[in-house]
């Protein structure tokens, strides 16, 4: 008891009173009291589990309310590659939007789920989303260049298919797509 009281920054008698008040309020016995020993009853263990679950639900509730309020002043988006962020930031500046923009990078599947669940206002992917309730349109074209040493087998070739690069180790500035799509449910950000 004294260790618990120290952790909670209260006196031991105060902790004991609060524990008894909790038992009285719930109308159950949570603790088994023996000389110099205090332990949970089965009901006490279950109460702890339920309290932890309740606190998680409470935190989720608070997060959901705060996220909803934030949606009124923030545009949420998602991209599948960092290169699209630069283009988006440029277009947002051009439009003079006063809302804050929050962009996350995720996989295409995660982006599509976020859009379906209305956790984001728009997503930018390397392919159009073909669903009746989603509008997809071309956002920009991207030209990619491959730089290799003169001794590399691809150095003399004029054209290389992306599939040929699939198993090579390389450094990329952005993803390997050359067309980027913006998908949204409503609004006109794209």
From TrEMBL:
CDD domains: PBP2_LTTR_substrate
Database matches in InterPro entries: LysR_HTH_N, LysR_subst-bd, WH-like_DNA-bd_sf, WH_DNA-bd_sf
Domain HTH lysR-type: 1-41
Molecular functions per Gene Ontology: DNA binding; DNA-binding transcription factor activity
Keywords noted in UniProt: DNA-binding, Transcription, Transcription regulation
Transmembrane region(s): none
Any GO CC annotation of this UniProt entry: protein-DNA complex
A UniProt-annotated Pfam family: LysR_substrate
Family: Belongs to the LysR transcriptional regulatory family.
Protein name: Putative transcriptional regulator, LysR family protein
Species of the source: Streptococcus intermedius B196
């Amino acid at each position: 008891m004294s260790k618990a009281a120290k952790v909670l920054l209260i006196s031991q008698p105060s902790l004991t009173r609060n524990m008894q008040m909790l038992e009285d309020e719930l109308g159950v016995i949570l603790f088994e009291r023996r000389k110099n020993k205090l332990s949970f009853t089965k009901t006490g263990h279950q109460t702890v589990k339920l309290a932890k679950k309740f606190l998680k639900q409470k935190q989720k509730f608070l997060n959901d309310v705060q996220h909803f309020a934030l949606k009124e002043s923030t545009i949420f988006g998602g991209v599948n590659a960092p290169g699209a962020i630069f283009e988006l930031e440029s277009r947002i500046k051009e439009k003079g939007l006063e809302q804050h923009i929050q962009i996350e990078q995720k996989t295409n599947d995660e982006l599509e789920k976020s859009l379906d669940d209305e956790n984001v206002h728009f997503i930018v992917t390397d392919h159009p989303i073909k669903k009746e309730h989603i509008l997809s349109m071309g956002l920009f074209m991207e030209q990619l260049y491959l730089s290799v040493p003169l001794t590399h087998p691809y150095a003399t070739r004029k054209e290389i298919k992306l599939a040929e690069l699939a198993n090579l180790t390389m450094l990329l500035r952005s993803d390997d797509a050359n067309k980027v799509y913006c998908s949204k449910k409503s609004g006109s950000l794209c």
